[in-house]
């Protein structure tokens, strides 16, 4: 399994970005996928994701601003990020989880200037 993330960049506070993560290899639509982020000096945290049962979860800090979506036909997940804040600045990683292993993308930098 390989995950290729894209869409990060530099944006002003209040702006928007859309992240994409294309998965290749042995991918099953019923396995969880999600977006995590890691800011300097902080632990990696879940931003948004979809469970194996199809439920979408969001971190409290992004609810109402970020939207997670998944296109199983394309094996791709997306993260639409609106009303971005400086505290959203981090490296964003996509994740694919099967019962045996966690797969991670290479990370994409999101920087929000004030």
Nutshell version of this structure?
The protein is mostly beta strands and 114 residues long. It has strands at 2-6, 9-12, 17-24, 33-38, 45-50, 56-58, 66-71, 76-81, 90-98, 101-104, 108-113. The mean pLDDT is 95.
Defining traits:
single chain, 114 residues, mainly beta, 4-stranded antiparallel beta sheet, 11 strands, 0% helix, globular
Folded structure, characterized:
This protein is mainly beta and 114 residues long. The chain contains no helices and eleven strands. The strands form two sheets. Strands 2, 4, 5, 6, 9, 10 and 11 form a seven-stranded mixed β-sheet that branches. A hairpin with a 5-residue loop joins β5 and β6. The model has no long low-confidence stretch (mean pLDDT 95).
What does the secondary structure layout of this molecule look like, with pairings?
Elements: E1 2-6, E2 9-12, E3 17-24, E4 33-38, E5 45-50, E6 56-58, E7 66-71, E8 76-81, E9 90-98, E10 101-104, E11 108-113
Parallel strand pairs: 2-11
Antiparallel strand pairs: 1-3, 3-8, 4-5, 4-9, 5-6, 7-8, 9-10, 9-11
**What is the 3D shape?**
globular
Largest sheet: 7 strands, mixed
Order of helices and strands: EEEEEEEEEEE
Strand content: over 45%
Q: Which class of secondary structure composition applies to the elements?
A: mainly beta
Helix count equals 0
For the secondary structure, the number of strands is: 11
Termini Cα gap: 37 Å
User: Which runs of at least 5 residues are low in confidence (pLDDT < 50)?
Assistant: none
Query: What's the Cα radius of gyration?
Result: 13 Å
Mean pLDDT: 95
Percent in helix: under 10%
């Amino acid at each position: 399994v390989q995950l290729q993330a894209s869409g990060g960049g530099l944006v002003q506070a209040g702006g928007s970005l859309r992240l994409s993560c294309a998965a290749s290899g042995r991918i099953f639509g019923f396995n969880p996928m999600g977006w995590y982020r890691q800011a300097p000096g902080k632990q990696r945290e879940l931003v948004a994701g979809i469970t194996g049962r199809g439920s979408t979860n969001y971190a409290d800090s992004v609810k109402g601003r970020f939207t997670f979506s998944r296109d199983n036909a394309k094996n791709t997940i997306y993260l639409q990020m609106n009303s971005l804040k400086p505290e959203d600045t981090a490296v964003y990683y996509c994740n694919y989880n099967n019962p045996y292993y966690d797969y991670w993308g290479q990370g994409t930098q999101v920087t929000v200037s004030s």
